Fold this protein.
Amino acid sequence: MKAFVTGAGILAGLLLVLAAGCTIDSVRLNQRAQVYMEYGEYEKAEELLKKSLDNDHENPATRYWLGRCYQATGRIDRAIYEYGLAVRFAPSIETAQMAYIDTLHEDQREEESLRATKAFLAHKDMLMGEYVRIANKFRDKGMDMHYITTLHYAQEKNLKDPTPSLALADYFAEKGDVEQTMKALSRAFEIDPYYPGLAEKLGRNMYQEETPEPTSIPEPSPLEKELRELN
């Protein structure tokens, strides 16, 4: 079986360990488990992670890695359960939160995944650039509703910053939704009417909204053609 853990994944896991304040024994066991996972030895990794939980039952790093182990071996429900515990014990840690949200989405549990996204955003106090970064992560994965949800949350948390409104306007413009595009642009205009390029975007979309679709002229019948020729 192909290894599920990458170098970047191990680094993220180590950051999770440090942020969670795990015990030394748990850290060592988790590190060994990650090595086994890297080589596809999930059964041995699972054994070590469960041993780690004996030392610290509420260790979010262990719960996260156990979730990764279950996910790699197709036990999705158990993976979601472990990710959920990791999030519960350490709600501010992005690595666990994203794994939880992504796996719920992949398992077609969309409402739960969106609720988890909102809960994650509520637990994490971020600058605008962080909201945009997380939103773009979702969009890159094809998780459009999560993208929109994140930007809407950013709007409410940053009432004087037009950035999320402009990002939403660009998104809806790409989708051809003129009404939602205008709504987002209007909100951005209320915040900062002098934002570079905003007036042009508003004008272009207003023209699109107000210009009716051209109607085709019906082809005349043979009788009408002959009468026209007489005239």
